Amino acid sequence: MPLLWVLRDVLGLKGAKYGCGIGICGARTILEGHTAVRSCQIPLAEASQKAYTTIEGLSPAGDHPCQRAWIEEDVAQCGYCQPGMILTAAALLAHSPNPTDAEIDKAMSGSVCRCGTYNRMRRAIHRAAEGSRR
Q1: For residue 90, what is the domain's CATH number?
Q2: Are 41 and 2 contacting, i.e. CB atoms less than 8 angstroms apart?
């Protein structure tokens, strides 16, 4: 059983979404430490003894710099991909606090947004980086 089903069906954490089913869309991204991982690709047996963060745990108050920037830049349209994108952005900023457009594009290339909000997403990541430096 993949970790995704435990998160959603056992723990009731619905932020990680089921998307493509093969780990390429990014909808079920969670954090392992400060690294973005795909919960659909992690067998439950491999998940034990590790700590994971879902969108629900990133900031219970919803005030993580990435969450604030996503709202301020009006990134979300349908919202399906947004939890995975926000967590991927948080992982990027943890490793590269002032990313270039190229670094953002590379990090976010595994997150598919059918609504096409990539330009707003890039602006939101730059905004979150600025907010983190204050």
Answers
A1: 1.10.150.120
A2: yes
